[in-house]
Amino acid sequence: MITPAQTLGGVSEEGLLGSIFPFFTTQPGLLVGPGDDAAVVAASGPVVATTDAMVRGRDWLDQWSSASDVGAKLLTQNLADLAAMGAVGTSVLITLVADPATPVAWARDFAKAVGEGAALAGVAVAGGDLSSAPPGVLLVSITALGDLQGRAPVLRSGARPGHTVAVCGTLGRSAAGLRLLEAGGDQAADGDQAADGDQAADGDQVSPSDQGGIRQLCLDHHRRPTAPLAAGPLAAVAGASAMLDVSDGLLRDGGRIARASGVCLDLVGAAIAADVAALAPLLGEAAALDCVLAGGEEHSLLATFPSAELPPGWRALGTVREGEGISLDGRAQRQRGWDHFAGDVP
């Protein structure tokens, strides 16, 4: 029997798997699940595939994030990528590469969070891989598969002059949460923090006077970002011409659409004023604006649409025009944000 005090080195691979498999519920599209050399999943046509990894000390700190937080965040990152292509998630594969001294409890809490989030999103956990690592190393990754349900994928290259730039979800909250943690605002990793089951991001604006509420929302969104998963396929049905998820910052990710489409995305300052105002009492005006424009790990969806008529839950941020790059009220902006090797690019 596995006890919470045990480490991965003190249990067999089979013992660990036997303790976490119950967290993974079956889904209709999973024909053969964990236990064989490979899983078998049903597919009605083209399969969308994506993968994301997180490394302890680089993508999270144990004093800020629990194993459950890491599992929930990693799942959201992957499912948001599928949604940004207009796809519905069907299954995921998990990889755990860990120092044998890692507590079994950490691995179980991580797996439980992934399993619970996947079940609520209607996604099957099809299997994965385990490997040991040098002392101190802990790495997790998820590969996610999605179904386009007969639609063409929404790429980054379809934006055209005259199209509307829009977002579904929040802006700047995750980056604000990180700044609060870096400033010592909340060091506790809450392992009992509840994940948002249906992965629906709250895009409603928060009153700047509600500092305690927005502070907690920011901390929660950094630890466990949510994404408006259903909005991706619905945007595809509504004719979205380009789309991605805001993982590295509005300017950097918007610049990727601009570069792929050969256009300029011109954002309107008034469209993000409420996002900035909500964060300003916590961080100051300049830092709040920087979080909204360059903050990563938000996982809201950014898209362009051929007309000003947007699907429910989307709000306009600007327009697409001829040119290149990204601008704010007509002024060219540097595509700053997160880079995996350069770090935060100011």
What do these coordinates show?
With 346 residues, this protein is an alpha+beta fold. It folds into two domains: 12-147, PurM-like, N-terminal domain (60s Ribosomal Protein L30, Chain: A, 2-Layer Sandwich), CATH 3.30.1330.10; 164-345, Alpha-Beta Complex (Phosphoribosyl-aminoimidazole Synthetase, Chain A, domain 2). It is 32% helix and 24% strand. It contains nine helices and 15 strands. The chain has a seven-stranded mixed beta sheet with strand order 8-10-7-11-9-12-13. β14 (337-339) and β15 (343-345) form a beta hairpin. The termini are far apart. The relative contact order is 0.16. Mean pLDDT is 90; it is low at 188-209.
Topology of helices and strands:
Elements: H1 13-20, E1 30-32, E2 40-41, E3 47-55, H2 67-84, E4 88-98, H3 104-120, E5 124-132, E6 138-147, E7 164-168, H4 173-182, H5 211-223, H6 231-237, E8 242-245, H7 250-261, E9 264-267, H8 269-283, H9 285-294, E10 301-305, E11 315-321, E12 325-328, E13 331-333, E14 337-339, E15 343-345
Helix pairs in contact: 2-3, 4-5, 4-9, 8-9
Percent strand equals: 15-25%
In total, the number of strands is 15
Q: What are the low-pLDDT stretches, counting only 5+ consecutive residues below 50? A: 188-209
Give the second-level CATH assignment, the architecture of the largest domain.
Alpha-Beta Complex
Q: CATH homologous superfamily name of the largest domain?
A: PurM-like C-terminal domain
How do the strands of the widest beta sheet line up side by side? 8-10-7-11-9-12-13
The average pLDDT is 90
Count of folded domains:
2
Radius of gyration, CA atoms, in whole angstroms: 20 Å
